[in-house]
């Protein structure tokens, strides 16, 4: 009789263990589905899954374009008016561009560019040219002048005007 009681209790333990495992799996699935549903309804999507719009965007890479330089061998020299006295300004400069065609165009039209720059330098205020801000402003006006000449000729623009030497006296 004792041998018959032992096998009947073992199946009861297996069925409780299966029931507990099944409940844990159901609870975990319910939690997982609620998290996924919440993320989906909020519009963020699932982590690691991109939307179709992100995949269709083109990736635009900026390419580095090295600058090229052209030196103006002769200095720009002109007189500058300062409170009734005549002063002199001498500027050695270079042009910077990322497009080599702009520098070739600047060399081609250098007589016109040089004339415009001498006029611009001669119309500058002597006291303004003695300050770093004044020289920076002159460089910006010279850049605009050079690019205006190049634009009138249908050429690409230069990037910057650089002073190699700047003397006012």
UniProtKB/TrEMBL annotation:
Which superkingdom is the protein from?
Bacteria
Please describe what this protein does: Controls the rotational direction of flagella during chemotaxis.
Name its GO BP terms in alphabetical order: bacterial-type flagellum-dependent swarming motility; chemotaxis
* Cross-referenced PANTHER family: FLAGELLAR PROTEIN FLIL
Which parts of the chain span the membrane according to its record?
A: 20-42
Q: What is the lineage of its organism?
A: Bacteria, Pseudomonadati, Pseudomonadota, Gammaproteobacteria, Pseudomonadales
Q: Which UniProt keywords apply?
A: Cell inner membrane, Cell membrane, Cell projection, Chemotaxis, Cilium, Flagellar rotation, Flagellum, Membrane, Transmembrane, Transmembrane helix
What is the membrane topology here? Single-pass membrane protein
A GO CC term?
bacterial-type flagellum basal body
A UniProt-annotated Pfam family = FliL
The protein's name: Flagellar protein FliL
Signal peptide positions (record): none
InterPro entries xrefs: FliL
């Amino acid at each position: 009789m004792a041998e018959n009681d032992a096998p009947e209790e073992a199946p009861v333990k297996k069925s409780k263990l299966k029931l507990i495992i099944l409940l844990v799996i159901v609870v975990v699935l319910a939690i997982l589905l609620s998290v996924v549903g919440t993320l989906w309804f909020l519009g963020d999507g699932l982590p690691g899954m991109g939307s179709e719009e992100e995949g269709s965007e083109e990736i635009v890479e900026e390419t580095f374009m090295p600058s090229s330089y052209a030196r103006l061998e002769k200095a720009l020299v002109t007189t500058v008016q300062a409170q009734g006295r005549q002063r002199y300004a001498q500027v050695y400069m270079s042009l910077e561009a990322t497009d080599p065609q702009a520098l070739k165009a600047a060399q081609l039209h250098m007589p016109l560019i040089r004339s415009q720059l001498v006029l611009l330098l001669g119309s500058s205020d002597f006291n303004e040219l003695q300050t770093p801000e004044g020289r920076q402003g002159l460089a910006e006006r010279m850049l605009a002048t050079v690019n205006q000449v190049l634009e009138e000729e249908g050429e690409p623009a230069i990037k910057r005007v650089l002073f190699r030497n700047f003397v006012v006296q």
